[in-house]
Backbone:
C-alpha cells in the first residue's frame, strides 16, 4: 500500500479535537527551562536549524513531553520531530500523548512519531487496539503517514465504535487502491455525518473502482450536508460519472465546502462531468419544472450540452420556456401594480426562458422549429430575445439562416430585431440573405437599418460594394454615427477614397473613442500606412489621443514600423505602467525592424515589476533572437515563490509568441499536466496559439482527459488549429 507524505484531513482534525486543557493548567506558569532548551525552542518557532549537537538534549526534551504546560509540551514534541530518528528514545513518552485532551498536543505527537520513523512502528501497531479511541485514532493516523498500516487493520478500524477512529480509517483507505473502495462506499452511510464526508473525500482521490464508488456517491447526494462532498467526489471521476447528472440536478442546491465557494457543488461537478448519458435525457426534465429558476437553468444547460442526444426532451424545453415566460410576465405585472422597484429575481426567470429556447436548438438542430419558438415567445414577451455568447445563431448554416427570412420581414419590431441580431451572429453564413439585408439597410427605419448594416459587415468583404453607398448616405444624413461607419469599413475592408477622407477627419474628433475606432479602421484599409501611422502618432502627441490606445493600434502593424518604432521606444519610459507595458509589448511585434529599440528595452529587464520584465524579455527575444532573458524570467516565475502572482501573465506571454513560443512550450506542457482543470484555460489557449507539433501533441493528450472541462477545451483548440482556413500559431 502506498500512502502520501504527511497529510491530515480537516475533518479528521475536527473529529479528534476535544476541549483544551483545563483553566488551571492553561494559566499555570511553565517551569524554568535551561538556556540550551530555550534556544532550541526559539529555533523551532523561527524555523531555523537546530544544530548538529541538538540530539544531546533528547533526554531533557523527553522529560518535557510530560510537562503540564501545553505550550512547553508542544514545543518539546515539535523539537523532537525535528530530530527525526535521533528522537527514538522518546517514543514511549510521545505515544502516551496520543491520548492527551489537547488536540494540538496530539497533533504534535503524531508528527513526532512520523518523524522518528521505523522505530515508532511497533509501538504504534500495538496501540491500534488500545482502549482509548483518541489513541487508536492517533496511532492509525501516524501509521498511515508512515505507510506501515495493514489493509486488514484499516478495514477493522473502519468499523470501530468511535467515529474519530472511523474518520482516520477513511482517510487511510483513500490510499490503498481498489481494495479500499468498498469499505469507503460503506462509510458513506455512516451515522456520523463527518465520517460520511471523510469517506466522500477519500473516494474523490481513490478512484480505482468507479463501478462501485459512483452509484454509492449518487445515492449519497440527497443526504443533507453530505451531498456537496459527494458531488465534489463525482466531479473527480469526470465523464465516467455521466449517470450522476440527473441526480445532481434533482438534488440541487447541495451547498459548498466553505464560504469561499462561488458556485454550488452541483454546478461545479457538472462542469467536470459534461453531458449526461443519452438514456437519461428524460430524467433531466423534472429539473425544468423546479420552482427554483437556478435549477431550471442548470437542467436546460445540461440538455444543451447533450446536443441531439437530448432530442427526447425537446418538447419539455419548449414548454419550460413558455412556462417561465408566463411566470416572468405575471411577476412583472404584480410588480407594476405594487410599485415594487425590486422584482423577485424576475431577471433570472427571463434567463430561464432564453436558455431553454437555446437548448431547443441544441437538442433538435431544427432551424425552422427553433425560429417558430423564437417568434412565439418574442411576441408574448413584447421584447427581443438575445443569447449569451456563444449563441445558437453562431452554429447556423447558410440554409438555417434562410429560416430567418420570414422573421426579418415580420411586422413586429422586436421579432425583426431578434432575427437581425441572429444574422449578425451567423457571420458569413448570413450572406445567403444578403439581398434582404440590403433591402432593410436602405429602409427608413434607422434602428433596423443599422442592424442590417452590421449583419452585412459580418458577412465579410464580399458585401462591400453594395454596402458602401448606403454607408455614405446614412452618414451624410446623420443617421449613422462615425464610429459605426469606422467599424463597418474595418470589417468590410472598404478602401474607397471617400471613406479614407472621412476616417482621417475622424482622427481629429474630440471623442477619443471615435478617434481610436477611426484609427483602427485606417490601419486595415489605408493604402498609405506610413503616412496614416504618422497622423495617428501626431494625434497622440498633439491632440490628446490616448497613448496606450495608440500603442495597441500600432502593435503588429508591420507596414508602419518606420513611424511606429521611434514613437513606441519613447513610450518605454512613460510614467504610466500600462502605457509602458503596451509599448514594450508592441515593439516586439515588429521583430528585427525594431532593432533600434533594443537600447530602450534592455533597461526594462531590471524593472521592479516582473510583468514589465517578462514583456521586455519577450520583445527582445522577438527582435534579437536571444532567449536567455525570457527563459530566466519564466524559470523565476514558475518557482514556488513566484508562480501565484505572475503565473497567468507568464503563460499569456508565451502564448503571445505564437509559433516562436515553441522554444518555451515545455513550461506550458508541464503546467497543463499538473494544473487543476479550472486553471487550464490560459494554458490551452497558449498551446492553441503556438500550434506546433509539441503543442498539438499536448492538446491531444489533454483531449483524452476524463475531465470534461479539459477534454472539451482541448478538442476545441485542436479544431481551430486544424480548420482548413486556420493557421498554426496565429
Residues:
Amino acid at each position: 500500500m502506498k500512502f502520501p507524505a504527511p497529510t491530515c484531513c480537516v475533518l479528521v482534525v475536527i473529529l479528534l479535537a476535544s476541549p483544551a486543557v483545563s483553566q488551571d493548567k492553561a494559566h499555570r506558569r511553565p517551569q524554568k527551562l535551561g538556556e540550551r532548551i530555550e534556544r532550541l525552542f526559539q529555533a523551532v518557532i523561527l524555523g531555523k536549524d537546530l544544530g548538529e549537537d541538538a540530539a544531546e538534549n533528547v533526554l531533557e526534551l523527553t522529560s518535557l513531553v510530560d510537562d503540564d504546560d501545553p505550550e512547553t509540551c508542544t514545543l518539546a514534541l515539535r523539537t523532537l520531530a525535528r530530530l527525526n530518528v535521533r528522537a527514538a528514545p522518546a517514543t514511549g513518552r510521545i505515544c502516551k500523548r496520543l491520548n492527551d485532551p489537547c488536540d494540538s498536543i496530539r497533533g504534535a505527537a503524531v508528527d513526532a512519531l512520523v518523524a522518528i520513523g521505523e522505530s515508532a512502528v511497533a509501538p504504534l501497531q500495538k496501540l491500534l487496539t488500545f482502549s482509548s479511541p483518541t489513541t487508536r485514532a492517533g496511532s492509525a493516523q501516524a501509521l498511515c503517514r508512515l505507510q506501515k498500516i495493514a489493509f486488514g487493520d484499516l478495514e477493522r478500524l473502519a468499523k470501530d465504535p468511535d467515529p474519530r477512529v472511523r474518520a482516520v480509517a477513511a482517510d487511510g483507505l483513500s490510499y490503498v487502491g481498489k481494495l479500499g473502495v468498498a469499505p469507503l462506499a460503506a462509510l458513506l452511510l455512516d451515522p456520523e455525518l463527518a465520517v460520511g464526508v471523510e469517506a466522500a473525500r477519500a473516494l474523490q482521490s481513490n478512484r480505482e473502482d468507479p463501478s462501485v464508488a459512483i452509484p454509492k456517491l449518487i445515492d449519497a447526494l440527497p443526504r443533507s450536508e453530505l451531498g456537496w462532498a459527494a458531488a465534489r467526489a463525482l466531479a473527480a471521476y469526470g465523464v465516467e460519472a455521466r449517470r450522476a447528472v440527473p441526480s445532481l440536478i434533482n438534488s440541487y442546491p447541495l451547498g459548498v465546502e466553505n464560504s469561499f465557494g462561488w458556485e454550488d457543488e452541483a454546478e461545479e461537478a457538472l462542469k467536470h462531468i459534461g453531458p449526461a448519458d443519452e438514456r437519461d435525457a428524460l430524467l433531466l426534465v423534472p429539473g425544468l419544472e423546479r420552482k427554483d429558476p437556478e435549477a431550471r437553468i442548470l437542467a436546460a444547460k445540461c440538455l444543451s450540452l447533450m446536443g441531439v442526444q437530448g432530442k427526447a426532451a425537446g418538447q419539455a424545453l419548449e414548454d419550460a420556456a413558455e412556462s417561465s415566460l408566463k411566470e416572468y410576465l405575471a411577476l412583472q405585472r404584480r410588480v407594476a401594480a405594487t410599485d415594487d422597484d425590486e422584482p423577485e429575481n424576475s431577471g433570472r426567470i427571463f434567463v430561464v426562458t432564453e436558455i431553454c429556447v437555446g437548448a431547443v436548438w441544441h437538442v433538435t438542430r431544427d432551424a425552422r422549429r427553433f425560429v417558430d419558438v423564437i417568434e412565439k415567445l418574442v411576441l408574448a414577451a413584447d421584447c427581443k430575445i438575445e443569447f449569451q455568447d456563444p449563441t445558437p445563431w453562431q452554429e447556423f448554416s447558410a440554409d438555417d439562416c434562410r429560416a430567418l427570412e420570414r422573421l426579418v420581414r415580420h411586422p413586429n419590431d422586436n421579432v425583426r430585431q431578434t432575427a437581425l441580431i441572429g444574422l449578425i451572429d451567423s457571420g458569413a453564413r448570413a450572406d445567403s440573405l444578403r439581398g434582404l439585408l440590403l433591402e432593410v439597410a436602405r429602409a427608413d427605419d434607422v434602428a433596423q437599418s443599422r442592424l442590417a448594416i452590421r449583419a452585412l459587415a459580418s458577412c465579410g468583404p464580399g458585401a462591400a460594394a453594395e454596402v458602401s453607398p448606403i454607408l455614405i448616405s446614412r452618414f451624410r444624413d446623420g443617421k449613422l454615427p462615425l464610429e459605426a461607419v469606422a467599424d463597418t469599413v474595418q470589417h468590410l475592408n472598404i478602401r474607397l477614397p471617400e471613406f479614407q477622407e472621412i476616417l482621417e477627419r475622424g482622427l481629429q474628433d474630440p471623442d477619443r473613442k471615435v478617434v481610436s475606432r477611426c484609427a483602427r479602421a485606417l490601419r486595415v484599409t489605408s493604402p498609405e500606412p506610413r503616412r496614416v501611422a504618422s497622423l495617428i502618432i501626431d494625434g497622440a502627441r498633439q491632440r490628446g489621443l490616448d497613448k496606450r490606445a495608440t500603442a495597441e493600434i500600432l502593435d503588429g502593424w508591420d507596414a508602419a514600423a518606420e513611424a511606429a518604432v521611434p514613437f513606441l521606444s519613447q513610450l518605454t519610459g512613460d510614467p504610466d505602467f500600462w502605457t509602458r507595458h503596451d509599448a514594450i509589448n508592441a515593439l516586439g511585434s515588429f521583430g528585427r525592424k525594431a532593432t533600434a529599440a533594443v537600447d530602450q528595452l534592455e533597461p526594462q529587464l531590471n524593472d521592479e515589476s516582473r510583468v514589465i520584465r517578462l514583456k521586455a524579455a519577450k520583445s527582445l527575444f522577438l527582435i534579437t533572437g536571444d532567449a536567455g532573458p525570457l527563459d530566466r524570467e519564466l524559470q523565476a516565475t514558475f518557482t514556488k515563490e513566484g508562480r501565484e502572482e505572475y503565473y497567468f501573465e507568464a503563460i499569456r506571454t508565451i502564448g503571445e509568441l505564437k509559433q516562436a513560443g515553441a522554444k518555451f512550450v515545455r513550461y506550458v506542457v508541464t503546467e497543463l499536466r499538473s494544473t487543476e482543470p479550472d486553471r487550464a484555460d490560459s494554458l490551452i489557449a497558449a498551446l492553441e496559439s503556438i500550434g506546433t507539433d509539441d503543442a498539438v501533441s499536448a492538446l491531444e493528450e489533454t483531449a483524452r482527459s476524463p475531465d470534461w472541462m479539459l477534454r472539451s477545451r482541448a478538442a476545441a483548440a485542436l479544431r481551430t488549429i486544424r480548420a482548413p482556413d486556420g493557421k498554426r500559431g496565429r
